């Protein structure tokens, strides 16, 4: 016990702790600035704020265009995340059972991660124009599933490492079908991985702007794209307020999912 305490007081441990704290501060500082700026009482963004007010939150929720984009982003994110998680679960199961061919199959399934998002958007723009789904909710769902499914797949693959084949074999020996084994044995073991994949997919979909530049239509503008175009001619803290709402929504989903499903580890089971 004393040895562990001594190691934590060593210069190397203290230096590592300070470095870790600085990295976290560097990563969280932009979020903190946005959250503080959202309460700015000024007409233009400036930091630090000279006064505090909720006026920009009121302006955001009173703006019909922003509300329409917010609900579209939420709906799109939830649908795309649900589909990506379901497909990712099947793909992850296939990867875990594919043996020697898993490397090639995994490369194929994760291919959208290796291609620049701009090229993906351009390819979808041409494909959706040919399929006549440009600017539609269906087209946007298909596009977002394409870019979010690799995250869900990778998370499920990691979660499947916690599944012992002997457990599934025991269920089969007791008379369970493949579907019953998957639903009653495998899913409870990997539910943390499934929810983590869902959250990853939701965050990627909800914050996407590159794909939206290519596949959005006049009546289907997501919130990130709305903010991007809005900032071209308006530099008010309304942008910070809208961004703060996005941050709070994403953090709320993560906290609620962690409370309900327990995300301490990909394969955790309570």
UniProtKB/TrEMBL annotation:
Question: Mainly resides where?
Answer: membrane
Where is the protein situated, by its record's location annotation? Cell inner membrane; Cell membrane
The keyword Lipoprotein is annotated on this UniProt entry: no
Q: Which UniProt keywords apply?
A: Cell inner membrane, Cell membrane, Membrane, Transmembrane, Transmembrane helix, Transport
Q: Which Gene3D superfamilies does the UniProt record give?
A: MetI-like
Give the source's domain of life in one word.
Bacteria
Tell me what topology the record assigns in the membrane: Multi-pass membrane protein
Locate the ABC transmembrane type-1 domain: which residues? 70-257
Q: Which GO terms describe its biological process?
A: transmembrane transport
Stated name of the protein: ABC transporter permease
């Amino acid at each position: 016990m004393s040895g562990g305490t001594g190691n934590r007081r060593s210069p190397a441990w203290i230096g590592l702790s300070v470095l870790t704290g600085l990295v976290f501060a560097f990563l969280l500082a932009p979020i903190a600035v946005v959250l503080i700026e959202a309460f700015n009482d000024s007409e233009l963004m400036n930091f630090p704020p000279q006064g505090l007010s909720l006026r920009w939150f009121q302006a955001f929720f009173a703006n019909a265009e922003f509300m329409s984009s917010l609900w579209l982003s939420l709906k799109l994110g939830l649908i795309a995340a649900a589909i990506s998680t379901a497909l990712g679960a099947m793909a992850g199961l296939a990867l875990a059972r594919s043996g020697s061919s898993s490397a090639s199959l995994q490369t194929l399934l994760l291919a959208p991660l290796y291609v620049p998002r701009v090229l993906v958007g351009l390819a979808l723009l041409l494909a959706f124009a040919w399929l006549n789904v440009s600017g539609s909710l269906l087209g946007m769902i298909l596009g977002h599933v394409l870019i979010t499914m690799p995250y869900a797949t990778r998370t499920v693959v990691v979660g499947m490492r916690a599944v012992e084949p002997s457990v599934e074999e025991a269920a089969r020996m007791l008379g369970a079908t493949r579907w019953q084994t998957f639903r009653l044995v495998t899913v409870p073991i990997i539910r943390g991985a499934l929810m983590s994949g869902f959250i990853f997919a939701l965050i990627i979909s909800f914050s996407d702007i590159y794909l939206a530049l290519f596949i959005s239509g006049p009546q289907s503008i997501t919130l990130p794209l709305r903010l991007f175009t809005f900032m071209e001619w308006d530099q008010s803290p309304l942008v910070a307020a809208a961004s703060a709402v996005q941050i709070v929504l994403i953090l709320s989903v993560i906290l609620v999912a962690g409370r309900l499903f327990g995300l301490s580890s990909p394969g955790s089971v309570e």
